Amino acid sequence: MKIISRILLVAVAIAAMACQRTPLSVPQPSAKTEWVARPEAFQERYTLVQMVVLSRHNIRTPMVSKNSVLTRLTNTEYQWFHWEGAPSTLTPRGAQLESKMGAFFGEWLGKKGLLASYAKDNYSFRFYANAKQRCQVTARQFADALLPGKSPRVEMNVQFDAMDPVFNPQITKLSEHFTTQAQKEIQTLFGDLDAGAAKGYAIMEQVIDITHSPAYPDTTSFSQFPSSVSFKINAEPSMSGGLKMACTVSDALSLQYYEEPDERKAAFGKELSFANWVTVSTVKEWYGDILFTAPSVSVNVAHPLLQVMLAELQNSNRVFSFLCGHDSNLSSVMASLGAEIPDLPGSIEKRTPIGGKLIIECFKGADGNTYADLLLVYASAEQLRAISTLTYDNPPMAVKIPLSGLSANADGLYRLSDVERRISQAIEAYDTL
C-alpha cells in the first residue's frame, strides 16, 4: 500500500506542477451572491444548507494508446496530439481546470456561509473518488482549491487504479428476464444503433481520412460493422461493432479539441464548425447512452452509487459531499432518477460534459420545509480550451435538471422528501430486476 500511495502522490504532484506552469488567478470578491438564475427575492425565502455533488473527472488522455485503433484508422501522415501521461489519466490541463472549478465552488460556498462549517473532525465535508488516477487527482485538485491549506482527506476505498464497486458501472444482477427486458428497452429507445450515429460517422471518417489509413480497405466505414450490446455478470455492459470503434475516435477527437489550441489542427487540417464538433462528440455520448441509460440497465449499474448519494443526503452532519467518478456514473444516475437533460449551451458534449457535476442543492425554506434543486454545472468548451479562471463574474454553465413526474413549487424547487423518495424508488427497482 505504501508503493501505491507513493504512485498516487506522484500523480498528484505532476498535476500540481502543471498548475504551477500557469498560475491560478485568485478570484476577486464580488458583490453578487447568486450566480444561478433564481426568481426574485429567492434568497429571502430559502437558505442553502447542504450540497451533494456527483462529478465526472476532468480532461484525461484517450482510453487507448495512439498505437492502437487510433493509428490504424487514421491517415498515416496525421499526428495525434501529444498527450502527457499514460492512457486514461488526468492531463495537466485537466488538473488546472479542476482547480479552477474547486476555487469557484469555494467562492460559491463561502458566499452561502457553508465553508464556515468545515472541520476535519466532524466530517461535515466529504470527498470520495473512484481509485482510478483520473478520479483521485480530480478530487484532490478540487478539494485543495475549495479548502486551500486544509488538505482535506480524499477517500480511496480500494487499491489504487482499481475500480471501486461504488463507481463501477457493472451489471451485478443478471438473469434471462433482465437481458430480454434490457435489450427490448435499448431497441425501443435507440433503434438502429449505427443509424443514430451516421452523421458523426461521416464527419469523423472525413477528419481522420480513413481511406488513407492502415485499416483501409478492410475498413472503409464504421457502419460496415453492425453494432450490438451484450451483458455479463460483474462486468460493464459491452458493445461490439462499428460504434465501439467510432466511440474511441470520437473520444480522442473531443479531447484533442480541448487540448489543441489550433482548432484546425485539432481536426487534422479540416474546417469544423462548433456544430460539427458537437456532432463528433455526440457519437461517444450516443454510445454511452445506449450502454448505461436504458431503465433496467441504469438502476442495475447505478445501484451502489445511488445508495451512497441517498445516505449523504440523509446524513444530518454532512454539509458538502463530493463524489468523483465517470460519465457512465452521471448518465446512469440521471437516467435512473428520470432526469430530463435539456440542451447544454456552450458544450460540445450534450449529456455528461467533461468535469461536469450533477448537484443536489438542499434549501431550508422560510416556511419550515426543506427543498431541493438539481443542477448540472460544467465549464463551457471555450472555458476548457482557454483554461479560464471561474468566478461569479465568469461562472461555469449551470442548467436545471428536471425530474419527470415530480412537481416543483413556484420557485422551481422540489420537496427534498420527493427527491429522496425518487432515489429510494430507483434503489428499490434493483430488487425487481
Structural notes for this entry:
The protein is α/β, with parallel strands linked by helices and 433 residues long. It folds into 2 domains: 2-69 and 77-169 and 302-432, Rossmann fold, CATH 3.40.50; 176-299, Rossmann fold, CATH 3.40.50.1240. Helix content is 41%, strand content 12%. The chain contains 15 helices and 10 strands. It has helices at residues 2-21, 42-45, 69-73, 92-111, 133-146, 176-190, 198-207, 242-259, 263-266, 274-292, 295-301, 303-313, 327-336, 381-386, 416-429, and strands at 46-56, 125-129, 154-155, 228-230, 238-240, 320-325, 357-365, 370-378, 397-400, 414-415. Strands 1, 2, 3, 6, 7, 8, 9 and 10 form an 8-stranded mixed β-sheet that branches. Strands 4-5 form a two-stranded antiparallel sheet. The longest helix is centred in the N-terminal third of the chain and has 20 residues, at 2-21. The two termini are 37 Å apart.
CATH class group of the largest domain: Alpha Beta
Largest sheet: 8 strands, mixed
The proportion of residues in beta strands is 5-15%
| Helix vs. strand class | alpha/beta
Q: What average pLDDT do the residues reach?
A: 92
Uncertain stretches: 1-31
**At CATH's second level, what is the architecture of the largest domain?**
3-Layer(aba) Sandwich
CATH topology of the largest domain: Rossmann fold
The total count of strands amounts to: 10
How many DSSP helices?
A: 15
Shape: globular
Order of helices and strands: HHEHHEHEHHEEHHHHHEHEEHEEH
- The separation of the N and C termini measures 37 Å
Radius of gyration: 21 Å
Helix proportion of residues, in percent?
40-55%
- CATH homologous superfamily assignment of the largest domain: Phosphoglycerate mutase-like
Overall tally of structural domains: 2
